[in-house]
Amino acid sequence: MKRQIQLALVAIFLCVSLKISAQDATILQAIILDSTLTKDANAIIRSEDVVIQINSINSITVKTKRIVTVLNKLGNRHADSYEPYDPDTKIKKVQAIVYNAFGSEIKKFKKKDFHDRSMYDGFSLIGDNRFIYFDHTPISYPYTLVYESEVETKNSAFIEPWFPISNYHVSLESASYKVINPQRISLRTKEKGFEEYPVELLDGDQEITYRLVKVPALKKEYMSPPLSKIVPLGKVTLDSFSLVNVQGSAKDWKTMGKWQYNNLVSGRDKLPESTIQNISKLVGGASSTKEKVKIIYEYVQDKTRYISVQLGIGGWMPMLAEDVDRLGYGDCKALTNYTKALLDSQNIESYYTIVYGDSDKRDIDSEFASMQGNHVILNIPENEQDIWLECTSQTTPFGFIAGFTDDRNVLVVKPEGGEIKRTKKYLPDENSLKAKAKVYVKSDKSIVGDIEMISGGIQYGDRYETKNEPVKDQKLHYKEYWDYINNLNISSMQLDDDKDAIEYTEKLEVSATNYATKAGNRLLIIPNVFNRYTYKMPKYDDRKTPLVISRGFVDEDVYEIHIPEGYSMGTLPEKKVEESDFGSYSYQLEKLNERQLKFTRKLIIKDGTYPKEKYEEYRQFMSKIRKTDKSKIVLKQQ
Amino acid sequence: MGKLVVWGLGVFLLFSSSVFAQKYKFGKVSKEELQEKSYPLDSSANAAVLYESRKVDYIYNSQGFHLITEVFKRIKIYNKEGFDYATEEISLYKRNSDQEKVMSLKGITYSLVNGEIKETKLKKDGIFNSEVSEYFDEIKFTMPALQEGSVIEYKYRIESPFVANIDRVYLQHEIPAKKIEVVIKAPEYFNFKKFSTGYLPIDLEEVKYSDKFNYRTESRLIAGLNGGRVKGSSHVVEYQGTKYIINSEDVPALKLEPYSGNTQNYISSMVFELSFVSFPNSPIENFSTTWEAVTKTIYESSNFGGELKKSNYYEDDLNQLVSGISDPIKKTAAIYNFVKQKMNWNKVYSVSAAKGVKKAYKEGTGSSGDINLILTSMLSSANIDANPVIVSSSSKVISLFPTRNGFDYVITRVKLPNGNIFYLDATDKYGLPNILPDRVVRGRGRVIAKNGTSQALTFRPTKPSSNRYSIQCELNSEGEVNGKFSVHHLDYLAHGFRVRNGVKSDESNVKRLEKKYEINDLQNYKVSGVKEYGKGVNERFDFSLEDQSEVIEDEIFFSPLLFLRDKENVFKSDERIYPVDYGYPFSNKYMINIKVPEGYEVTEIPKSGSFSLPDNMGKFVYRSNVANGVIQLVVNETINNSMISAEDYFVLKEFYNQVIQKENEQVVLKKI
User: Fold this and answer.
1) Do A630 and B547 count as a contact with CB atoms less than 8 A apart?
2) In 10 A of CB B17, how many CB atoms?
3) In what order do the strands lie in the sheet with A170-180?
4) What is the distance in angstroms between the Cα of B557 and the nearest Cα belonging to chain A?
5) Is A72 in contact with B503 (Cβ distance < 8 A)?
6) Percent of chain B clearing pLDDT 90 (strictly above)
7) CB distance A137–B145 less than 8 Å?
8) What is the pTM for the complete model shown?
9) Closest CA of chain B from A209, distance in Å
10) Which of A204, A240, A605, B465 would bridge A249 by S-S if both were Cys, CB 3.0 to 4.6 A apart?
11) Do residues B174 and B79 make contact, with C-beta atoms less than 8 angstroms apart?
């Protein structure tokens, strides 16, 4: 339900469009390749050279030459085949040549051989980003592609960063990045992750150069940090810049925020008098500011929907509040600005806030002021406690941001300047799932039962949207959720979304034939009917990256299990308790009487980043849980 | 008494609806429509088409005939989930200077505000035009001021110079529709073939009509005795035509289901294809009529038959390839393997040579048409009885009528002197004679002989492809199982393996198997036969299992199929509208030997038995035995039909339930 703005795209496409250079002709042959670079690799970047020339704050030229040897079918996507552009960006030169393994030219694509398409970003109704591309069908592997382009843009608010290792399973033979600044326009740089790699850094009078050679391909590991946090990243930004013909200057977040406020946000908040009167009436009875904000937020949810239109400066500036008022739609910028305008009309202070929306908790870099972010939310400072509003969703509860914009640094845009703040973190206790169930095991191997699950926090966020699905899909959802129970039949469902308490209650009546297995005169059942951890984590002999548990949670399950007439339960296994740095687990079966037993399970997982050595410990912890969760008990016929 | 009243009312309502049938006029949305809270026939609908009208007509102007399509839709939005249906995209074709245009676009959103109808007009700032590619423009708009319960209306006209193409007429949507009216007026000059798709009845009426148009001749100079300037003149031309009228009411929403194949084959629609054009005083221009004519047109077209005849570009290669080979099978294999290796498919589906065979051959890449016409031509030149087979691939709507647009692909058929037939597709690197890629095996074909005759074909094999599994293992008293696993993938299952895993490293194959079978320690993985086409693919590994058995007191419990047992029934839904499409029949055969630990005896073992699907559609056989402390198991699970109809869905679902149940039955070992 949450969508992003053009900012993200520009950043992504800039990364993708990094292309580079090499003169040596021997590089074009691919018969003899360095085995350290072919290991785990689908493609090798033989050389990548980017030269960025800052002609003025209205003109930046980017020359790219990139030579990629593709080793197999999976490597094809790393051979450049397209170049993006927009109304302010001109592709001055583009060319691609394909060489076979022996280094002989087999195909050349000139600019006229490229096709021109509009870029569909996956969520916008319309945008003015376009790209040109060529079609190439590889006829054998390995082959080498030499891609060269020269692009000039009037936008200097973004300078494409240096991100030489931008994919898994791609090795790097050589990469260089040079920023030439003949006018000596004041600029700032930031280097991250340069220590772990042999990066060469040359900081000259008019030039900055980064260089890196011989990096073997990386493999993605389960629960590892995002790639951008474990590889070198160089960023460059100008203190004075131009964005779709709007000039700006900023050295730090305060001045950057002020510029954004003055040039992109302010003065777009006029509302029709009738709307203001209507809002005043609506909030008239409210006693507290928070209550008023909630009424206004729900009014916006009711009145508007998300439609993204990204044209020209509209990719950066919100639509006018009065247009949103009339049309009833807008993107994240527009809907946030509209909500802000409504709050302003009631003299409630609120701020337009720029954020990276994703599940990875990506921060706005607090130490490096530049155009960042891909999404906009609204901040209301209320009695020292911030309220954060996601304005693009019609269903999100008031103040709920779990999963997409929680626990990260954001830029709050205030008239007096920008301010970096951290959004709310959802603690394990809040991300809870509490389940109570009654299960009747029948002698025909079937079970019948009812369950009530109450979820909060992140777990609420993962679940509440099922309420809006058709009944048929809801039933299918539960069948998938408990995919290990065959022949599951959902006889009734009662779903209750308490948006005020942010609590989702699922009450179900279910049954399943053949739940128990028969072995002669015994019935085998798995007492943990409704909450099994089933994922088998991969094992690494040589884990390279830290373990990241991005969000913690607490699950508590209590079931009353009734056994069939004519069977006895014998001795039950002992209580199992597992403690670890990552949390704790307990599993217990208690005999209540001859016909009835009580199953109790509690799992606490704590979020955090743990050193790579800890991964195996975590895997073993989860693997014990997985085994215990599916353990059986035997019921004997008397 | 009460019952009677209700019954009477029902009749009255039925009666009244037919007498006072609602008229739908743009701008006249009723309060009742705005007040409706949910769609009466399907309460799960988030939105519904209240009315849709589509009128297609040919209009004559100074440039000749034009195709005019007028669209009017009224849509009810019940809730927020339905807001997506307030955005419309119109795709507009263009070629050279000719292009389709949208005219007179109007839209209104209606909402109830305090009991009053509030109207908001669609304005220019809500309409967006974009260039998608050199062939298509797109107009998008989204309706303003939507609320839950709103009704939206829009209408527009598309003017098209492409008179041969009437767009496919959809009579069903993702949301239900109360009423859809379609009128297509075709002047006598344009003759159409029509075919329908879907599971819903279509009420089509054909009515003759007459109309006229003004035809103006230009003024011109004529030489000669009586020459001079002849004034342009205007003539009235009267003509007859056929009106196709479709009235659909209460159309249910199209539901998507797993394993359905191409859902475009199930949506209710009508396709009108121009078969010939015949203007007075002009020769008839044929597009298609019978299968023979269709195939003839294709065969005679320069980029099909013409390309097939070319041979000089490969002559040298061919001579070298077949020199000294006289056996037709060997010759066929040599040529097929050569083309398969040399040519690389560029993912373009085409019946004819898209690039041209010469260019494709030189570059080593081409479309299905380029590659398989090269193959057919080379085989024919080498005196093999080879013919092209035109194919409706699985991504194409199955053509029910003779129509040229019904095909999008071509393969090759070889008839050997002993009467055996090979179907060959050289676009598929993993293909074999009679082992065709999924896109072809799920499609349909038509073979074209050199004399122009044709014959319909399906490619689905009748013999099940099989996976043969075997496990040799030992169980110890801790409940751990150690042993060896091997599987042979044969025929289509070998092909599937090659397509999915052919280029994968051993390491990623190990990962895949560890994940699939939930095995911790998978050792000594070996795969063989991946490149030996014509044989099966074999995978083997050693394993050690800790969690496949349960040791409780002095007993050990486990399923003798171990990690090979099916755990989950993929058929979960309680209903099914479309057939289940497996692509090809298949069987899984398991042979398992488990050595029981010393000091233990087998006290329980699942009984031997079998059960079947009706009409020999499928069978499950389970045989168990204990001999010399070894549990022996032979299990065979076969599906004989590549497609199973929706009517048989429940028996199929139940069949799998029973399979899972049987495969999960436990062996009990007891300490002696």
Assistant:
1) yes
2) 11
3) A105-109, A89-99, A143-153, A59-70, A43-56, A170-180, A207-215, A200-203
4) 8
5) yes
6) 56
7) no
8) 0.83
9) 37
10) A240
11) no
